From TrEMBL:
Catalytic residues of the enzyme: 274 (nucleophile), 274
A GO biological-process term: rRNA base methylation
Keyword Metal-binding: no
Protein name: Putative 23S rRNA (Uracil-5-)-methyltransferase RumA
Naturally occurring in which organism (per UniProt): Lachnoanaerobaculum saburreum F0468
Phylogenetic classification of the source organism: Bacteria, Bacillati, Bacillota, Clostridia, Lachnospirales
Molecular-function GO terms, alphabetical: rRNA (uridine-C5-)-methyltransferase activity
A Pfam family this chain is assigned to: tRNA_U5-meth_tr
Length: 321
């Protein structure tokens, strides 16, 4: 009927079910969505229609620093710019006040299920917000991965650190490092930590976060983890790898990543997973070869849902003579 709505996709469909809130989300979600809808109605800006690729506003990404209270709003648009961007900022500032630290536009003109495009334009405030996990401070940009439940994230990463069993003498590789959340936790107890992430914006944040926390025993690379690690190892830039930490997306590890770990044979592998089925698949492949499962902890990361995070540690099997 031509009405702009906000909501979520119904399960396994692209049909939108109208909602203006999320009961397990932050209280500002409803305020932000109302401000965006009011702006769209006032200035005649239409929502994106994926059937004919018409319309402008595709998604609204809202982030809040749990410890700092800082708010970020990123509006994903099906255009190179938004004519009334100043008015959008005014609407959001009026609704959110001084806690709003960043407003940006993300450009995504592709007919795709992927939410974010490659280019983000900051139209108000900073390019990031800041938050703490434990005593480590992080800068978070719109395109950077950051866990949605900071309280449980502290427990999740604490368990990963425990399983890594660091004494201060280890070299650690953090695959899929994002903005350096796990890397910087590990660096406080390791000799040196290398982090790898394919998203350039996330690595920029990771390097900034290391400086922000005066952590010098880390180095971050942009690229595919298995290619970077193999290249550094074969070029002689690194020697022994004591621990590899992986925190892959829901699809789990690809074959090349598993083959790389089996080639490098670290003493321990710590696997953080958001999907138990792909975790089981990958554990089977690793434990068929050189590793044995030692410990597993499940973390209730996504309250009031059936999704969980798991942390697993595997140790290299000592070959008997």
């Amino acid at each position: 009927n031509g009405k702009n709505i906000t909501g979520y996709f119904a399960g396994r469909t692209h049909s939108i079910v109208e909602f203006d809130d999320c009961i397990i989300g932050i209280e500002e979600n409803k305020t932000v969505l109302k401000a965006v809808l009011d702006f769209m109605e006032k200035y005649g800006v239409n929502a994106y229609n994926e059937e004919d690729t018409s319309g402008i506003i595709r998604h609204v990404l809202i982030r809040k620093g749990f410890a700092t209270g800082e708010l970020m709003v990123c509006v994903v648009i099906n255009a190179d710019n938004l004519v009334y961007s100043r008015e959008l900022v005014e609407s959001l500032c009026t609704a959110l006040g001084k806690d709003l630290k960043s407003v940006s536009l993300n450009i995504n003109k592709k007919n795709t299920n992927v939410i974010l495009g490659d280019r983000t334009i900051t139209i108000y405030g900073r390019e990031y917000i800041e938050d703490y996990i434990g005593d480590v401070k992080f800068r978070i940009s719109p395109q950077s991965f950051y866990q949605v439940n900071p309280v449980q994230t502290k427990k999740l990463y604490g368990k990963a650190l425990e399983y890594a069993a660091l004494t201060g003498e280890e070299t650690v590789w953090d695959m899929y490092c994002g903005i350096g959340t796990i890397s910087l936790f590990l660096a406080k107890s390791a000799k040196f930590v290398y982090g790898v992430e394919i998203v350039d914006a996330a690595i920029q944040n990771a390097r900034e976060n290391a400086k922000l926390n005066n952590i010098e025993n880390v180095k971050f690379f942009v690229g595919k983890a298995e290619e970077i690690i193999t290249g550094e190892y074969e070029n002689g830039n690194i020697k022994d790898i004591d621990v590899i930490v992986v925190d892959p997306p829901r699809k789990g590890l690809d074959k090349l990543a598993i083959d790389t770990m089996l080639k490098l044979l670290p003493k321990r592998i710590v696997y953080v997973s958001c999907d138990s089925s792909t975790l089981a698949r990958d554990l089977k492949l690793l434990c068929e070869k050189e590793y044995e499962l030692k410990k597993l902890t499940v973390v209730d990361q996504f309250a009031r849902s059936y999704h969980t995070e798991s942390v697993v540690v595997m140790s290299k099997v000592e070959q008997t003579k």
